[in-house]
């Protein structure tokens, strides 16, 4: 019986390890986003509504929540982040959810797959994966959109940021220790940004996606620090009390 219990406990411990092993098979770059950097999040929000929302929604997020969290007034949100109209043809209200009017069926027909909602994508894919994904489009004439992606092979999404990044070519330079292709990109047509500027823009987008996946994360981490501090101080008080109560007991 004892043996059975220990085997079961061992198996239970193995589960998280097994699910980690199913992570990305490709090497991803560190995103190093800073979700406490409001300016970066504001830029990310601007890129998101301009370059992503034509196809993707963030249907669990409201515009005015972003405004509140990122220090923007309702008017600033209306003027800079809202480009859609509601079902009555009026400009979308600031308290509305971030939806678009692109029917899923049409989108699926155009791209092979409907663009998924992105509110929680940072929780699903991780920041590093997103950062690498948006920087890993390369020219591939065998694909319908003329591009492919090393992180997401045969992806249905076109290279929507091509005006900023330009187009790059992929070159396989060897194999890494795990047998995956080691690739290098070469910019064959430059965009409006330098590679460093483009990396920064992508970092802003990923920071925004990370914020959106858990808008409360900065506050949660702060509360965590206060709780640890409280527990630390309380431990000292509890210890002193214990000493006081037991001092006459021998
Ligand atoms: C022209 C339409 C279009 C635009 C614009 C667009 N996407 Fe996509 N995106 C797609 C489609 C279609 C897919 C599904 C691809 C697939 O599954 O093959 C997708 C998939 C994705 C995925 C993968 C989701 C997953 O977990 O499978 C991410 C992440 C993503 N898009 C991010 C973005 C970001 C960030 C932007 C803005 C910079 C953006 N997209 C703009 C069409 C678009």
TrEMBL record:
GO cellular component: membrane
Signal sequence range: 1-21
Keyword presence, Aminoacyl-tRNA synthetase: no
MF GO annotations: electron transfer activity; heme binding; metal ion binding
InterPro entries referenced in this protein's UniProt entry, alphabetically: Cyt_c-like_dom, Cyt_c-like_dom_sf, Cyt_c1
Transmembrane residue ranges: 223-241
Cofactor annotation: heme c
Bound cofactor: record note: Binds 1 heme c group covalently per subunit.
UniProt subcellular location: Membrane
Sites where the protein binds heme c: 52, 55-56
A Pfam family assignment: Cytochrom_C1
Keywords in alphabetical order: Heme, Iron, Membrane, Metal-binding, Signal, Transmembrane, Transmembrane helix
Chief place where the protein resides: membrane
Sequence ranges assigned to domain Cytochrome c in this UniProt record: 39-213
Keyword Iron: yes
Top-level lineage group: Bacteria
Protein's name in the database: Cytochrome c1
Source species of the chain: Thioalkalivibrio sulfidiphilus (strain HL-EbGR7)
């Amino acid at each position: 019986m004892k043996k059975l219990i220990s085997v079961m406990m061992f198996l239970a411990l193995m589960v998280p390890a097994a699910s980690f092993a199913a992570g990305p098979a490709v090497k991803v770059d560190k995103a190093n986003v800073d979700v406490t950097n409001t300016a970066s999040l504001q830029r990310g929000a601007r890129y998101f509504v301009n370059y992503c929302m034509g196809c993707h929604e963030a249907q669990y997020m409201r515009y005015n929540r972003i405004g509140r969290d990122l220090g923007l007034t309702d008017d600033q949100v209306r003027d800079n982040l809202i480009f859609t109209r509601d079902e009555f043809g009026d400009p979308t209200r600031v308290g509305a959810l971030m939806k678009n009017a692109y029917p899923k069926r049409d989108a699926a027909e155009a791209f092979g797959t409907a663009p998924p909602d992105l509110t929680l994508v940072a929780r699903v894919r991780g920041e590093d994966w997103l950062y690498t994904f948006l920087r890993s489009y390369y020219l591939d004439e065998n694909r319908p959109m003329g591009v492919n992606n090393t992180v997401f092979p045969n992806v249905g999404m076109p290279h929507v940021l091509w005006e900023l990044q330009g187009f790059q070519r992929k070159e396989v330079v060897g194999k890494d220790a795990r047998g995956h292709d080691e690739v290098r990109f070469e910019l064959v047509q430059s965009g409006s940004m330098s590679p460093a500027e483009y990396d920064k823009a992508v970092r802003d987008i990923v920071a925004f996606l990370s914020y959106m996946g858990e808008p409360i994360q900065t506050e949660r981490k702060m509360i965590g620090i206060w709780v640890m501090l409280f527990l630390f101080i309380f431990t000292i008080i509890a210890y002193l009390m214990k000493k006081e109560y037991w001092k006459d007991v021998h």
